[in-house]
Each structure stands twice: as structure tokens, then as C-alpha cells.
Amino acid sequence: MNGKRLEEYFREKFCEDGTYEIYCAWKGGSAHVFCAEVVGGKVRLFDPQNGKDDAGSYVRDMKAGCVGVIRIDNKLVNPKIAGLFIVK
Question: Does residue 86 carry a pLDDT above 80?
Fold first, then answer.
């Protein structure tokens, strides 16, 4: 997957409004996970780990063949592990 194909891949994956998780390997080694929010067809890339509100610069440092996207706002939390996320 080259840079142009990576852009096409993101357009395909971000076809609906929602929140997405993006996994990527870096060109220099290691990897990272960050998020995308799609509202009205506009994509905002952000990194909740470091609080960066515009992670668009991450795309140029990605290893294009090692990227994955999954929509996460429409997933259910397994009740067996809900305690890891919910504090009463």
C-alpha cells in the first residue's frame, strides 16, 4: 500500500459518521494506536494518549502497508470486562 492507496483506504473506512481506532506501524519502527472522529464526512484525527487534538501529521510517518482501522463507537463492551472501564 503506497501513500495514495492509504488515502483511499481511509476514505473507504471512514464512510460513516463515527469514532474509529487506527493502528499503524511507523516507518522508523514501533507502532501506535490513535483515533479518528468522522462527523458530516469531515475527519478529525486525534490522539487520546498524549492529548494531541490534530494527529493528521501522523499519516506521513506511517508504514503504509501496516495500517488498520476499526469503528469503535458502535461496539458493545463485554460485561465480563466492563469493570475495567466503568467505575461506580
Answer: no
